[in-house]
Amino acid sequence: MAQKWEYVTVPLIIHATKQILDNWGSEGWELVQVVTGPDGNGLVAYMKRPLEDS
Predict the structure, then answer these.
(1) 40-49: average pLDDT
(2) H helices, E strands: number in the chain
(3) CB neighbours of 32 closer than 8 A, spacing ≥ 6?
(4) What's the N-to-C CA distance of the chain in angstroms?
(5) 43: left (phi over 0), alpha (psi -120 to 50) or beta
(6) pLDDT tens, position by position, 15-39
(7) Would you say 6 and 39 are in contact if contact means Cβ atoms under 8 Å apart?
């Protein structure tokens, strides 16, 4: 069976990027990509983690 994933987008605050990523990482989220935010300012992190078997 193929692995199933859940995803989240997280706005990044430049002066707290490491803390934000560490917090999400401790919850099992893996960073996939960081892109410019939709307003052209700031950054948004795309993260994923495996779904638990239900």
Answers:
(1) 94
(2) 1, 3
(3) 7, 46, 47, 48
(4) 13
(5) beta
(6) 999 999 999 999 999 999 999 998 8
(7) no
